Amino acid sequence: MENQTIMYMLVLSGLSDHQNHQLPLFLVFLLVYLMTLTGNLLIVLLICTDSHLQTPMYFFLGTLACLDMGYSSVTIPRMLFDLYTQKWLISIQACITQIFFILCFVLSEISLLAVMSYDRYVAICRPLHYTQIMHWKTCVLLVLGLVMISVVHALVHIILLLKLTFCSLNPLQSFFCDLPQLLLVSCSDTSINVLLILILAIFLGGGIFALTFCPYIIILNTIMKMQSKAMRSKAFSTCSSHLTAVFIFYVTSLFSYFHPNAKDKSALDKVAFIFYTVLTPLVNPLIYSLRNKIMKISLKRAICRLIQI
């Protein structure tokens, strides 16, 4: 067997090969990161301070904002550091750690989107039993449950990753540590890792996908049967923000990972990764604040209180 040098540092391909682009990209993504933190933190503060927003729907929305802040903080600061130093180097340990948190936050977010679909189903299709079904204990247990499942899911992947060795000099074709890309630079047998990804994607991912979209079949059927135009408009309004966030998340993530050739990542794929990892956490608070009348009213009340002070 040929001697292979074990690698302890990995190379990321980065966003651009041109050094003149590094500083402008650093400033742009720094601004995006600050806007992401500000927007999501504002939503969390509004929900915590305004009694009108202390309902299950906004509890889940506040949780989503926290996940978005965590998710963006796993990828963007490291990218900003690499843009500033222009090295695009990362240790194996740091790479695996980043993958762990990415897997945790991604699965937590898609699971939460499924829970929010169920919340909308109960609110529209079983409004008289809403407070009994979606009481605070249930909401907290649902969030804790999905976080625990996400952590266990990530740990399974990480345990298998720790058994691999890396000896390829090829750079990871991304600006962050991505699980499929990391497997490509391993000189170990990764068939079990790939099989695990496929099995979990089919059963876990497919199940969550079904739980996210199936309630909307019943919801749309219920809305169409409503006699009042005002009630139909209100029901559509409460669902539109959530559906928009779900659509953006799934479209960008599916486009990023279901590429016909994982070894040939084009500039278009990097743009998809930017939407998936950077812009989605930024867009979510804008969707839920601009399309939600109660959130806008709460924001106006908060601004008025600040002006009076």
TrEMBL record:
Domain of life: Eukaryota
Keyword Cell membrane: yes
Residues that span the membrane, as ranges: 25-46, 58-76, 88-118, 139-162, 192-218, 239-259, 271-290
Main localisation: membrane
Family named by the database record: Belongs to the G-protein coupled receptor 1 family.
Domain G-protein coupled receptors family 1 profile span(s) in chain numbering: 39-288
A Pfam short name: 7tm_4
Protein name, per record: Olfactory receptor
InterPro entries registered for this protein in UniProt: GPCR_Rhodpsn, GPCR_Rhodpsn_7TM, Olfact_rcpt, Olfactory_GPCR
Membrane-topology annotation of the record: Multi-pass membrane protein
Compartments, as annotated in UniProt: Cell membrane
Gene Ontology CC terms, in alphabetical order: plasma membrane
UniProtKB keywords: Cell membrane, G-protein coupled receptor, Membrane, Olfaction, Receptor, Sensory transduction, Transducer, Transmembrane, Transmembrane helix
Keyword Translocase: no
MF-aspect GO terms: G protein-coupled receptor activity; olfactory receptor activity
PROSITE patterns in the record: G_PROTEIN_RECEP_F1_1, G_PROTEIN_RECEP_F1_2
